[in-house]
Amino acid sequence: MMIGRADGGVRIEFAAEEAGLLTVLAHQFADVVRDPELDDAPLLATLFPDAYRDDPDAASEFRRYTRDELEQRKIEAVEAISATASEGAVLLDAEAAETWARALTSIRMMVGTRLGIRADGDEPGSGPLAEIYRWLGELQWVLVDALEGP
After folding, report:
1. What InterPro entries does the annotation carry (predicted)?
2. pTM recorded for the entire structure
């Protein structure tokens, strides 16, 4: 994977395996958020924390008015990744790159939750899923850096 600035946006070079992995992870994330049958309570609690931790009624009311829109925005962001991640060069304008960065946060949270990461400072350990977690973090960091660069 290589990332650089290009015409006011970002250019990412993906190997086929990298693009395929991102697409699979994006679909998994959308499925978990969209389908109540796939209830992943730790992930959903991380993605949609209670706004009022000491007031369950207020938290429920807040969730009633905001949850659907938040879910939709997160799903649209990961769908943007699955629609554009491909082998070779992927060119993202600034808006698409920002959408990718937000989506990568959600996808990385999903992987981190599966690894048992609950707080800053928790380490992912070792193994294939931990390597994916680290790779997503690197991709996100370099993408944000390219967006903020000169």
Report:
1. AosR
2. 0.85
